[in-house]
Fold these 2 entries.
Entry 1:
Amino acid sequence: MNWYGWLSLGSQKQDNKDRDSGQRGALFLWSVVGTVIMSLMFCGYTWAQKSVVVLVDGNEKAVRTFSSTVGSLLEAQKISLLEKDEVIPAPETPLQEGMVVTLNRAVDFNLVVDGTTAPARTRGRTVGDILIEYGINLGPEDEVSPGREEPVVSGMQVQVARVSTVTEDSEVPINYETKKQYTVKLEEGTTRVAREGQDGTERQTWQVVYKDNKEVSRQLVSREIITPPVDREILVGSGMVVSRGGENIRYSDVRQMVASGYTYTGSNTASGVPPHYGVVAVDTAVVPFGTRLYVEGYGYATAMDRGGAIRGNRLDLFFESESEALSWGMRTVNVYFIK
């Protein structure tokens, strides 16, 4: 082999050696780059993951998460938000290491206002808080149940009743009455209408209490007659009627009799009853016991006593005192025998 051949062979060996060295360097470089990338990825992973605490209605839970905001954290934890629920901090707040996320759940209840029931939610602590939250203004007579200071309980019913007291006027009829007037101008037992009746009118003022537009009580405050009623008058044939003291007295007989007066004697009457005003002593041969009389100047009387000096058309009228009996004296009067 000549010199040139040895030179070519030496050069080829050197090239192979250099090539092997380059390959080893490239492999080392890629190894270093891979290690750096892995380190960076690990650091990034560690940096992106955060430790936070989720507090739901007082129940605490520690969480490690890659979520970037409070809202995405709740979604990742499958915690749904309902109406009126409160999240602190707000859902759009960026999540930070060591942050405490608090969720206060609202309470479900039924709200009854103006007779209408609807489901509702609240974070209020008392019934009074609910009224403020829902903008319910109470009138001076309105009622709320339970009371304003009662605590809110899940599933409770809060009822507001609108109460109002109003004054109402109404006109009502006054029914007429039918009155009989006895007369001797008609045959006994026959009747004739002397005047037709007519109802009157009365204005009544009522105090009415309404609860949710339904009447619950009514009280009469005053009344005023606008038009008085006109009574119906019927004439009745009686044969014999006398009017005394505004009263028509039907009688079967009238006699003039001498009447005297007496008072307590300490004994009962001859009929056995104690003496009292309206008792008259008679001659039972002329006036039987139990006969009802109307004595002018005295009034109604019943024959329930007798006396030794009472004979014929004589009467002895009982008075409550001796002075009244003496004041009466003895006089002749018309005595009507009542039917």
Entry 2:
Amino acid sequence: MKRAMLGLLLLPMVIGFSACDTDDLIYYDDEYAAPPENLAGWYYNRAVYLSWELGSGWDNDPFRVFGKRRSDSNYYLIAEVTNCADGLCSYTDVNIVPEITYEYYVASVSPSGLETASDWSVEVFVPFPDAPPAPGTAEVVALDNANYILWSNDPRNTPDFSFYRVYLAADGGDDFILGETDSEGFLDLLAVNGDTYEYFVTSVDDQGHESGGSQLAVGTPRPDYHGEWIYAYEDVPTQAGFRFSEDEMTYPILDGDSPSRHFRVEVDADGWWLVPGAGTEIFDGLFETTALKCGVGSDSDCVAIDQAPLTGYTNLDMALYPQTTYVLKVIGDDGKDHYGAVRVTLLGFDQDGAAIMIFDWAYQLQPGNPNLAPKKAARR
């Protein structure tokens, strides 16, 4: 909608001292303020946002923001703006009521107080702030110096769902936003081994309305061969390779193109794949297991693979499935054959949508020994 110029009529002021003698005329030229350009307005999360650009002749002139309900006859001055930067100005109106359409325009103000209005006004409808539902469940997979938070996807059933926010819950203080994601998973790389962390997740719709928090999910990172994670080669190739290591001081994650990798993880339209490296073979069979290793304190129905098969290996890619153990025969640092096992805990995505596999692993240090000891060689 076009807006007329408000304030005094911006024409040169002429004062005549003699009707016949033009030499006696004195002219006072009031300077125009450069009008605001490209005014835009939109609603987001219980506020109306306005932005406009500075005109080419702008000379640090302030701006006045006018607004009204569409049903009102007159505009009202609601703010004066002077904090413009990088050629842009903005104003946020939080004094709004749901189910109302508001109309705004902006005027620049010259040093003499004259206003030059924007070429048009903008209309913004304020909806009722209905927030989407919170995720129904949330849990944490504790890793080595990290936590992986995952939650249910029920908010996706809301037509206007947009993304999730992941929070670190604080005792007696302000909760801290760790990040935002449109995946049902988040990898907290700031977590430290031995410390316990509490998280909750909210959902946000496409107009910025945020739900309440999910139930709290608690996790304590800890160092061992459990809770390793690796990215898919298609998403983060530099962290997609793995090599069984002989001690906890050697980081097992390698570049997916490293010639020393024992395997790497790949993802395509057909699923997740365990891709053997040079000299690596994978047992051609799947073992559905409940743990990498059963021992003291394990559940009575614990299922694990204690001995590696001696035959039946292939160098073909193997499809990956959660809660499944894969047995591999690899060439160790000594140049001899060693057995190792990888149990997939979870196949998911991080906060950036990158495919990630969380797994436990065991490696036999004695060459040729099929006993899958996770930490050290069997006693002689």
